[in-house]
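Convert to structure. Protein one:
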Amino acid sequence: MARHPVRAKDFAVGEEPATVVVGLIASPGPAAEMAEALVGGLARQMGERLPGARWSVRVVADRLVGGPAPLHELVARTRRRLLDGGWQLAVFLTDLPLQTARRPVVAHASSAHGVAVLSLPALGAVGVERRADEAIVRLVAVLVGGGDAPVDVKPSGDDGGGKHRDALLRRLRELGTVAGDDRGAGLVTGVITGNLRLLIGMLRANRPWRLAVELSRALVAAVAAGVFALVTNDIWLLADNLGWLRQTLVGAGSVLAVVLTLLLGADLWERAPPQRDPEVVRATREQVVLLNAVTVTTLVIGVLALYCALFVLSLVSVLLLVPPGLHAAALDHPTGFSDQVELAWLVSALATLGGALGAGLESDETVREAAYAYQPDRSLTG
């Protein structure tokens, strides 16, 4: 497929392409030597595959970890190095194998964090430099495009390619733009509104709807709490007397409890490291605000998906397992479908609170891998 160069009409009059800085972190030794050998051509290759920005690649020799480490720790260390350098993206070349619970992989990318990890030993013994060069460019493309699909820019004559191309140009522009206000709410508002498409792309890459399925202990605790609540007469009476306003508050409180348990328990809230350079400080704060917004939104959507699933399950259980006559006798008045919905709502809220207790038992690694979708480079591992 032919690459399509950036043309003048792709930008507004007087608008210059944004500069996207990619930090290439390499373990001291052969990995760092390879990074130094590759750095000259990487910016050019990124510009060919991802036109719409000026690409700058900076090489840093740093082992980041002392020995084999789980994937979430490598991502966290790479992310911290990214913030320290004030970069937009980072790729870590490690001489260690990637430690994951799944089958061995060569590379992983986290669009939310803007970082990727590449294991050089997994590339084999032949053509390592060439394969590493291709892998780095492809990983950067995944981080920018938010998916595994190729992101080469197609000519505008292709409708689908034209839309993809426009979206990519916007995202590159947002990625390389620093918010103008570095104070409080002004920064937060500027980051969210000015990087809305970037935020949505990062959020979509996280796949928040799969959060509950990945957290097995939270799911088991939620189901157990729901079953207990369903067969308790006091819960039937409580659901009948709370009213919808209090029911809504209970539901919102249960969702908030799970979100806070995951956010604080696994230390997902990112803080900006101290910096001296004002430009780096501003860029770092924008990166931190953007990731925190994505993290909180991911957790809220994931927990709401859990709540909705529990509500449907609870309603079906009420309809099938709670005889209307027994329900009416317990409440001391005739019951209808609205009473069953009230009971199912309260049961699902209590089940979600049970999920918060289960979430507290999850390991930090499990929560992080559930909250952030790490995308394996299948073209290398397949």
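Protein two, convert as well:
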Amino acid sequence: MMKSNRLAVALTVFAYVISLAAIPYLPDQVAIHWNAAGEADGFSNKWVGAFLPPLLMTGLLIFMKVLPNFDPKKANYGRFQKSYGIVNAALACFFLSLHIVTLAYNLGVPVDVGRLAPLGVGVLFIVLGNYMPKIKHNYFIGIRTPWTLESETVWNKTHRLGGKVFIGMGVLLMLTAFWRGDIQFVLLMFVIVFGNLYLIVQSFLYFRKEQRKRS
């Protein structure tokens, strides 16, 4: 097992450990969702709140493990195995961080969820951006448009560009932590939607350019 995969497993186990440690001190109802102003607006039983995130992390681990087996381009996963493992570990770290923040909030620790959440999302985007150019042609992981799936050349060009765009998006998402309320949500959605639309359009333009070269 790769170090990054072992890290993802260790982070998931740690999520269960801290949930078990926190259960005796949590109130019967815990906050699990916050609005744009950073105010708790969704609640659940403490057992659900404490153990749903680790269970989701477990599901993610299993999903990432079996996913390549269903990909027609399964052989390509060996060409970016390290990057695939790092993406897996980064996702586990992200969800563990959210879990820790949620537990801390419900234990009475004065954490600013509305500020920490976009910071965490931004860091995740930056990590993904760094490894995106190394992801090889496949049907499940990466920027999947009709044109990237059709052409490996378009896939590679789009993912090289995507790495830079995701890093830029990550920085902008982190900056939204300095706004509060609806404006923060609007900025978050604008960055994510615009960045992804830009990559979709570029993948089409790369494909059209490649088709012209062939004709």
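The chain has seven helices and two strands. The CA atoms of residues 19 and 50 lie 5 Å apart.
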